[in-house]
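hey can u run this one w/ heme C bound, need the C-alpha coordinates asap thx
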Amino acid sequence: MDKKAILLTALLGAAGTALIAPAVVAEQAISPERLEQGKALAFDRFKGNCLACHWIEGGELTGNYGPPLVAMKIRYPDREALREQIWDAAIKNPHTRMPPFGRNRILTEEEIDLVTDFIHSL
Ligand code: HEC
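ok here u go:
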Protein backbone atom coordinates (compact mmCIF):
# COMPACT_ATOMS: atom_id res chain seq x y z
CA MET A 1 0.00 0.00 0.00
CA ASP A 2 1.45 3.39 -0.88
CA LYS A 3 1.56 6.48 1.33
CA LYS A 4 -1.57 8.01 -0.15
CA ALA A 5 -3.54 4.83 0.42
CA ILE A 6 -2.31 4.61 4.03
CA LEU A 7 -3.32 8.21 4.59
CA LEU A 8 -6.75 7.50 3.13
CA THR A 9 -7.16 4.52 5.44
CA ALA A 10 -6.31 6.71 8.40
CA LEU A 11 -8.82 9.34 7.30
CA LEU A 12 -11.66 7.20 6.05
CA GLY A 13 -11.20 3.78 7.57
CA ALA A 14 -10.79 0.60 5.56
CA ALA A 15 -14.22 0.82 3.91
CA GLY A 16 -13.49 4.30 2.57
CA THR A 17 -10.15 3.17 1.20
CA ALA A 18 -11.73 0.23 -0.59
CA LEU A 19 -13.88 2.75 -2.46
CA ILE A 20 -11.19 5.28 -3.20
CA ALA A 21 -7.98 3.21 -3.54
CA PRO A 22 -8.71 2.01 -7.10
CA ALA A 23 -8.99 5.64 -8.20
CA VAL A 24 -5.64 6.45 -6.57
CA VAL A 25 -4.02 3.48 -8.29
CA ALA A 26 -5.51 4.50 -11.64
CA GLU A 27 -4.18 8.02 -11.22
CA GLN A 28 -0.66 6.68 -10.64
CA ALA A 29 -0.64 4.01 -13.31
CA ILE A 30 1.42 4.84 -16.36
CA SER A 31 -0.10 3.77 -19.65
CA PRO A 32 1.62 1.00 -21.66
CA GLU A 33 1.80 3.43 -24.60
CA ARG A 34 3.76 5.90 -22.50
CA LEU A 35 6.17 3.19 -21.35
CA GLU A 36 6.66 2.10 -24.97
CA GLN A 37 7.45 5.69 -25.99
CA GLY A 38 9.96 6.00 -23.14
CA LYS A 39 11.56 2.69 -24.10
CA ALA A 40 11.84 3.73 -27.75
CA LEU A 41 13.58 6.96 -26.73
CA ALA A 42 15.93 5.16 -24.33
CA PHE A 43 16.86 2.55 -26.95
CA ASP A 44 17.11 4.96 -29.92
CA ARG A 45 20.80 5.35 -30.82
CA PHE A 46 20.18 8.97 -31.84
CA LYS A 47 18.14 9.88 -28.74
CA GLY A 48 18.81 8.41 -25.29
CA ASN A 49 21.23 5.77 -26.51
CA CYS A 50 21.24 4.41 -22.96
CA LEU A 51 22.18 0.94 -24.25
CA ALA A 52 25.61 2.21 -25.27
CA CYS A 53 26.53 2.16 -21.58
CA HIS A 54 23.79 0.28 -19.72
CA TRP A 55 22.24 -3.15 -19.77
CA ILE A 56 18.46 -2.78 -19.95
CA GLU A 57 16.14 -5.76 -20.24
CA GLY A 58 15.12 -6.28 -23.87
CA GLY A 59 18.00 -4.25 -25.24
CA GLU A 60 20.48 -5.54 -27.81
CA LEU A 61 24.23 -4.90 -27.94
CA THR A 62 24.19 -3.36 -24.47
CA GLY A 63 27.28 -1.76 -22.97
CA ASN A 64 28.60 -2.18 -19.45
CA TYR A 65 30.27 1.17 -18.93
CA GLY A 66 27.46 2.18 -16.58
CA PRO A 67 25.61 -0.07 -14.09
CA PRO A 68 22.78 -2.30 -15.35
CA LEU A 69 19.45 -0.53 -14.98
CA VAL A 70 17.52 -3.06 -12.92
CA ALA A 71 15.19 -2.86 -9.92
CA MET A 72 14.94 0.87 -10.45
CA LYS A 73 11.72 1.45 -8.52
CA ILE A 74 13.24 -0.17 -5.45
CA ARG A 75 16.53 1.68 -5.76
CA TYR A 76 14.84 4.99 -6.64
CA PRO A 77 11.62 5.14 -4.65
CA ASP A 78 11.66 8.87 -5.38
CA ARG A 79 11.01 9.29 -9.11
CA GLU A 80 12.42 12.83 -8.99
CA ALA A 81 15.85 11.54 -7.92
CA LEU A 82 15.86 9.24 -10.94
CA ARG A 83 14.77 12.07 -13.23
CA GLU A 84 17.55 14.26 -11.87
CA GLN A 85 20.11 11.51 -12.57
CA ILE A 86 18.96 11.40 -16.19
CA TRP A 87 18.59 15.18 -16.50
CA ASP A 88 22.15 15.78 -15.30
CA ALA A 89 24.22 12.94 -13.81
CA ALA A 90 26.88 15.48 -12.83
CA ILE A 91 24.68 16.76 -9.99
CA LYS A 92 25.46 13.52 -8.14
CA ASN A 93 28.87 12.83 -9.63
CA PRO A 94 30.77 15.80 -11.07
CA HIS A 95 33.18 13.41 -12.84
CA THR A 96 30.49 11.32 -14.50
CA ARG A 97 30.83 10.31 -18.14
CA MET A 98 27.07 10.02 -18.52
CA PRO A 99 25.74 12.74 -20.85
CA PRO A 100 23.58 15.41 -19.15
CA PHE A 101 20.45 14.75 -21.20
CA GLY A 102 18.47 17.69 -19.80
CA ARG A 103 21.16 20.27 -19.19
CA ASN A 104 22.62 19.77 -22.68
CA ARG A 105 19.15 19.47 -24.24
CA ILE A 106 19.93 16.11 -25.79
CA LEU A 107 16.35 15.22 -24.86
CA THR A 108 13.42 17.59 -24.30
CA GLU A 109 11.80 17.84 -20.86
CA GLU A 110 8.87 15.75 -22.11
CA GLU A 111 11.25 13.12 -23.52
CA ILE A 112 13.08 12.97 -20.19
CA ASP A 113 9.76 12.42 -18.42
CA LEU A 114 8.97 9.55 -20.80
CA VAL A 115 12.41 7.96 -20.36
CA THR A 116 12.18 8.41 -16.58
CA ASP A 117 8.78 6.68 -16.47
CA PHE A 118 10.16 3.77 -18.51
CA ILE A 119 13.37 3.39 -16.46
CA HIS A 120 11.35 3.69 -13.23
CA SER A 121 9.20 0.78 -14.40
CA LEU A 122 12.22 -1.56 -14.57
C1 HEC B 1 28.36 7.38 -22.13
C2 HEC B 1 27.81 6.39 -21.25
C3 HEC B 1 26.41 6.56 -20.69
C4 HEC B 1 25.23 6.78 -21.37
C5 HEC B 1 25.03 6.99 -22.85
C6 HEC B 1 24.18 6.76 -20.38
N1 HEC B 1 24.71 6.55 -19.14
FE1 HEC B 1 23.68 6.36 -17.40
N2 HEC B 1 25.40 6.13 -16.38
C7 HEC B 1 26.67 6.05 -16.94
C8 HEC B 1 27.65 5.83 -15.88
C9 HEC B 1 29.15 5.70 -16.08
C10 HEC B 1 26.92 5.76 -14.66
C11 HEC B 1 27.51 5.50 -13.26
C12 HEC B 1 27.34 6.68 -12.35
C13 HEC B 1 28.09 7.89 -12.83
O1 HEC B 1 29.24 7.78 -13.28
O2 HEC B 1 27.50 8.98 -12.78
C14 HEC B 1 25.53 5.95 -15.02
C15 HEC B 1 24.50 5.93 -14.10
C16 HEC B 1 23.15 5.95 -14.44
C17 HEC B 1 22.09 5.80 -13.49
C18 HEC B 1 22.23 5.54 -12.01
C19 HEC B 1 22.35 4.05 -11.85
C20 HEC B 1 22.38 3.56 -10.45
O3 HEC B 1 22.67 2.36 -10.29
O4 HEC B 1 22.09 4.30 -9.52
C21 HEC B 1 20.92 5.87 -14.19
C22 HEC B 1 19.51 5.76 -13.65
C23 HEC B 1 21.27 6.08 -15.57
N3 HEC B 1 22.65 6.10 -15.68
C24 HEC B 1 20.35 6.20 -16.59
C25 HEC B 1 20.68 6.42 -17.91
C26 HEC B 1 19.71 6.61 -18.95
C27 HEC B 1 18.22 6.56 -18.76
C28 HEC B 1 20.40 6.83 -20.09
C29 HEC B 1 19.85 7.11 -21.46
C30 HEC B 1 18.89 8.20 -21.56
C31 HEC B 1 21.82 6.76 -19.77
N4 HEC B 1 21.94 6.52 -18.44
C32 HEC B 1 22.85 6.92 -20.68
C33 HEC B 1 26.96 6.17 -18.27
C34 HEC B 1 26.06 6.41 -19.28
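The chain has a mean pLDDT of 87. anyway lmk if its weird
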